[in-house]
Amino acid sequence: MQIKSLRIFDAVASTGSFGAAAQRLHTVQSNVTAHIQKLEDELQVQLIERSSSPVHLTPAGHTLLPHAQRLLQTHDQACALFAGSALPTGCLRIGAMESTAALRLPPVLAQLYQTQPHMDLQLRTGPTGSLLEDLQRGLLDCAFVAGQPPQPRWWGQQVFQEELVLVSPTPLPGLPSPEVLLRTPFLAFRQGCSYRQRIELLLASQGITSARIMEMGTLDAILGCVAAGMGFALMPRALMHTQQARFGIHCTPLPEPLRSQIGVVDTWLVAPQPQGWSPQLRALVQQLGMEGAAVTMVATAVTPM
After folding, report:
1. Residue 88: which of 114, 108, 109, 116 has the closest Cα?
2. What residues are paired with 232 via a beta bridge?
3. Which of 29, 36, 128, 293 is the Cys-Cys partner for 22 at CB 3.0 to 4.6 Å?
4. Which whole-number Å values give the CA distances from 262 to 183, 239, 253, in the listed order?
């Protein structure tokens, strides 16, 4: 059944006239007649009793009418949702690095929820590599990851910038010597984490090729173990400012040129190209103030190979 046919049927039922229905829908009466006949042929019933004036519904017509009205209402609601004339509903599946989820996203998501109260938010944390895999598989609508999207068919926009600092259980006068770095473990997230890759680059810059990195599942586990004297970590400075008092840890900036080379990390929001966005995802992009960038990317989108 076509939506147009159901809308014409509803108009005939409410006006009691083929001609009045045609006027309401700005069409010709022959078009109304054709759509009603098409519905009757498809359902194999008579819907309209045409022998009276005004015309009226048959029992079959009365049965169809509430179904038609519900379908029309659902259709109109969906159109309004994607046209932006209705508040977004449904779930937005967001992926983020754990540090980004802890530091940057709470105020963004809280404000988004205040402006879009009918939306459901689902946040999944993980290392950049895993988040990109989930995005590729369609398990996420978007992801906050370290660096630009690795595929041209994805849309991406830089949203935050982090400075990484060395996290230790006691104050340090500067970067530890290669001997200290060699015998002291680093604590990090699992493979695929961009900060873990920066640890390897830091150690390589000091001539250490066999990095000893202990894998931890959560941010609290990493910082708790650092505080207990188990090793070092490499984390965003802004995040550590919120955690120093809680864990009793200390932060040491990376010296130049290491800071410029490996200590500055751009966080990007990565998603499918904008023509495939849901209203919920578009609301998040607007909340982040990137609507103009998204519109530009629609015009210059790369066609998938």
Report:
1. 116
2. 186
3. 29
4. 22, 17, 12
To the question of pTM greater than 0.85 for the whole model, the response is no
Q: Contact, 77 vs 86, CB < 8 A? A: yes
Token pair listed for 42: 């498809």
Residue 235, strand partner residues? 165
Helix (H) or strand (E) holding 177: none
Tokens of 66: 């509430």
Q: Which of 7, 6, 17, 11 is nearest to 40 (CA)?
A: 6
**Over the stretch 23-56, which tens digit does the pLDDT of each residue have?**
999 999 999 999 999 999 999 999 999 888 899 9
- Residue with the two structure tokens 């938010």: 121
Distances (CA, A) of 175 to 184, 210, 226, 232, 264: 13, 18, 16, 11, 16
Q: For the chain, which domains are there?
A: 3-83 (1.10.10.10), 88-305 (3.40.190.290)
Q: What tens digit of pLDDT does each residue of 166-181 get?
A: 999 999 999 999 999 9
Tokens of 14: 């409410």
User: Tell me, what amino acid is at 174?
Assistant: G
Q: Which residues lie closer than 8 Å to 194 by C-beta, 6 or more apart?
A: 97, 127, 128, 145, 146, 147, 265
Give the model confidence (pLDDT) of 131-162 as tens digits.
999 999 999 999 999 998 888 889 999 999 99
